[in-house]
Design brief:
The complex is a heterodimer of chains A (about 120) and B (about 625). By secondary structure, chain A is an alpha+beta fold. Chain A is about 55% helix and about 15% strand. Chain A is globular and about 50 Å long. Chain B is built from 27 helices and 6 strands. A 3-stranded antiparallel beta sheet of chain B has the order 1-2-6, covered by helices on one side. The chains are: A alpha+beta (about 120), B mainly alpha (about 625). At the A-B interface, α2, α3 and β3 of A face α4 and α6 of B.
Chain lengths: ~120, ~625
């Protein structure tokens, strides 16, 4: 499912931060892991991923370093900073609150949003 | 349009390239893409994205690493390049997004560099406009100040002009030539004082006087006339050949060039006018002074009196042109006359009869040294310089021009190495002037500001010089002069043109006050001496002298009261209260306890560092001891 741009803009950085919380990753690795672990919800192209990473790096949420990969070619590896970890905690709490709220409204209920309208009356 | 990424070529300088790559390789994103081993289509996409971003080179290199690695990693994971290209997205959009994120998150110092760069670019653009504006400016010489300078000389009948009397004899004797030798008028091979009877060189001095008796006669005849009447020219080639021969003896008029003409600048400028005749009046006065000594030696009173009158007539004529230097020469010439009077009377009080003294006194009384100082010549000179340096917008205003800067720094100006004193204008300075001329133009006063300041203050000086010193002390002009001096000092760069040309008015004021004081002292002394001759004793008070021997007894220049006099061992002294404004009974003046020459009195407000009085008669130092004058 392709997320709308505005949703991706809000959720994408949090998703990337969550991914980087487990360790350092390079760009392609982030794209693959994000797609796999989100079950295809977060499908980022290069035109989305790298601007997002540069924004996060500019804000001090992630840091990067260059390192030679197994093929000898240079790669840039990204990791979460301590500021990023705090930001992730904040975002996580907010998203939990959002999901709860949407759930209370009936937008999200057991994965069937279509039954929300009057189903629990 | 996508720029082609150049295919790799074999390096001609592998060592240099290796060094370059090690130091700067990370800045060369093109070679990073080129050596990525990615298909050409992928390389084109990456290059296209990077070219479209307006990032610094090292930022592009960082992005290049990410994009290249992404394609390589994707391919390594078995994803075809075509899929990777499809997933990449629109290169234009990608470039814009990458650029926005990078720019937004640049560190402050980097943003500052960009802002600074933009500001610098704006400043450079403005300066280039100013550069053009400055370099298209040209001066507009529209007023003939030389005619104004000559107006005093030419406005009289020919019968009142002395120049026709001097002209031919000066040419014949080559009076204005540097070779005209008066060395024998002085002791010690021309390095000492003027020769006097009893000196070893006296016969040689008399021989010089006799050799030039026709010249001396021309002085006596010419000095009786009220005007010199010489019309000055900026280009010596424009003189009547007879005038040229008198002023520039031994020179070829057709080939003669002034320094300005040789430099090819401002050839008809007022400040280029040569005054070779002015200093010659001082030589004439020296010759007459020696002749006076000879006349005394011969007992010829008529000759001595006539020579004294001649000296003062020459002083008047020397200062005819309204240039300060002419006035200062007039002061020097009159000083020789004052010295001669004092010398004769103190060495031989009975040499002059009463009628002779009366005649000499009348001559001295009629001198108008305040008229010898005229700032209108300086004003004209400054305004002539301004019109040759500044544009003219038709409303009296304008800006400095390149020609003006050249002129102000020309070594030919004034003939003393230019206004800046340098011996020659180096190529570096010329280049610097061309480049920084616009900045100099902006940092300096406009034509209107300079002209109005020059007009105001020089008119004020011209008014102030007519006040006696004691009146000028309390004049409101004094505050104005202090304000001007402060203004020109604190804003030296802004008013650099005026700073170069403005006269040292305070110095000139002091010289004027000294001459007027001396003049008054001599009038007083002559009147007292005439009383002595008539009565056989010294007068007791001013009432004994005025009005019979002098209409009004001269005033003290320091406070406007009457001059004082006293007697000491049958020698008579006339004195002023001096700089401490107190009557010290005729005690010689000193500064900080150090005795000062009588001729070097300082004028100014009351000051405790000065003690004693200003002795006006006798003023020649040796007269105070031996009755013998020094020069």
């Amino acid at each position: 499912m392709k997320l709308e741009r505005e949703l991706m803009r809000g959720a994408g950085p949090t998703a990337v931060m969550q991914l980087l919380a487990s360790g350092e990753m390079y760009g392609y690795e982030i794209v693959e892991s994000l797609s796999k672990k989100s079950k295809g919800v977060f499908e980022l192209g290069q035109s989305t991923l790298y601007p997002m990473l540069y924004n996060l790096e500019g804000k001090g949420i992630v840091s990067s370093r260059q390192k030679a990969g197994p093929n000898g070619r240079m790669r840039r590896y990204y990791k979460l900073t301590s500021k990023g970890k705090k930001k992730l905690e904040t975002d996580r709490a907010q998203w939990v609150a959002v999901v709860k709220g949407l759930g209370a409204l009936g937008v999200t209920r057991d994965g069937n949003p279509g039954l929300a309208w009057g189903a629990n009356g | 349009m996508t720029r082609q990424v150049e295919p790799a070529v074999e390096s001609l300088f592998p060592t240099l390239d290796s060094f370059w790559q090690r130091c700067f390789g990370r800045l060369h994103w093109e070679s990073q893409v080129r050596t990525s081993n990615l298909p050409a289509e992928v390389q084109q996409i990456i290059a296209s994205v990077l070219q479209k971003t307006k990032l610094f080179r090292f930022e592009k290199s960082e992005v290049a690493i990410d994009l290249i690695a992404h394609f390589q990693d994707g391919h390594l994971n078995g994803v075809p390049y075509s899929d990777l290209i499809h997933e990449f997205g629109n290169p234009n959009v990608t470039a814009q997004l990458i650029q926005n994120s990078k720019l937004r998150n640049r560190p402050m110092w980097m943003k500052s560099i960009k802002i600074f760069g933009m500001l610098f670019g704006a400043v450079v653009a403005c300066y280039l406009c100013l550069f053009f504006y400055f370099h298209v400016g040209k001066p507009n010489v529209s007023f003939d100040y030389i005619t104004e300078l000559n107006s005093r000389s030419v406005a009289f009948d020919e019968s009142e002009k002395a120049w026709p009397i001097y002209r031919d004899i000066w040419a014949e004797s080559e009076f204005c030539s540097p070779k005209f030798d008066l060395t024998n008028l002085f002791t010690e091979q021309g390095q000492g004082r003027m020769a006097a009877p009893g000196d070893e060189c006296w016969p040689a001095a008399v021989a010089v006087i006799n050799q030039y008796k026709d010249l001396l006669h021309s002085f006596r005849e010419g000095a009786k006339l009220p005007r010199l009447g010489l019309e000055l020219k900026s280009n010596p080639k424009d003189y009547d050949p007879r005038d040229f021969a008198a002023l520039f003896p031994g020179q070829d008029q057709a080939d003669f060039e002034t320094n300005l003409q040789k430099a090819g600048i401002a050839e008809d400028a007022l400040f280029g006018v040569l005054l070779p005749h002015v200093s010659k009046f001082r030589d004439a006065a020296r010759m007459l002074k020696v002749d006076i000594r000879h006349a005394v030696e011969l007992g010829d009173t008529e000759r001595a009196v006539e020579d004294i009158e001649t000296i003062f007539g020459l002083a008047q004529q020397a200062s005819e042109s309204p240039c300060l230097v002419c006035g200062l020469v007039g002061f020097a010439v009159s000083g020789l006359g004052f010295d001669s009077i004092e010398e004769v009377i103190t060495s031989d009080p009975d040499f002059f009869a009463g009628s002779d003294l009366s005649r000499i006194q009348a001559t001295v009384e009629n001198l108008q040294p305040r008229d010898w100082i005229d700032y209108s010549g300086e004003k004209a000179s400054i305004k002539d310089l301004i019109q040759r340096c500044y544009t003219d917008n038709g409303d009296g205003d304008g800006r400095l021009t390149p020609a003006g800067l050249d002129l102000l720094n020309s070594p030919a100006l004034i003939g003393t190495g230019g206004l800046n004193g340098d011996d020659e204008l180096s190529a570096y300075r010329q280049t610097a002037e061309k480049v920084f001329g616009p900045a100099i133009m902006m940092a300096s006063a406009s034509r209107k500001e300079l002209t109005s300041k020059a007009d105001y203050y020089l008119d004020l000086y011209n008014t102030d010089k007519n006040l006696p010193f004691w009146a000028s002390l309390t004049s409101p002009s004094r505050d104005e002069f202090e304000r001007l001096e402060k203004d020109l000092t604190e804003n030296a760069t802004y008013y650099f043109v005026l700073n170069k040309m403005f006269p040292a008015a305070q110095t000139i004021r002091i010289a004027l006050d000294r001459v007027v004081g001396r003049q008054e002292g001599i009038v007083a002394a002559l009147a007292i001496h005439r009383f002595y001759q008539a009565n056989g004793s010294w007068p007791e008070s001013v009432d004994d002298i005025a009005p019979e021997f002098v209409a009004e007894f001269p005033q003290d220049p320091f406070d406007g009261s009457l001059l004082k006099f006293k007697y000491d061992d049958d020698a008579m002294f006339v004195y002023s209260i001096g700089r401490n404004f107190e009557d010290d009974g005729g005690e010689d003046h000193a500064e900080n306890g150090i005795p000062m020459p009588r001729s070097q009195i300082q004028f100014g407000p009351k000051s405790d560092k000065f003690t004693g009085d200003w002795i006006l008669w006798p003023q020649l130092e040796e007269n105070a001891l031996s009755g013998r004058a020094i020069d």
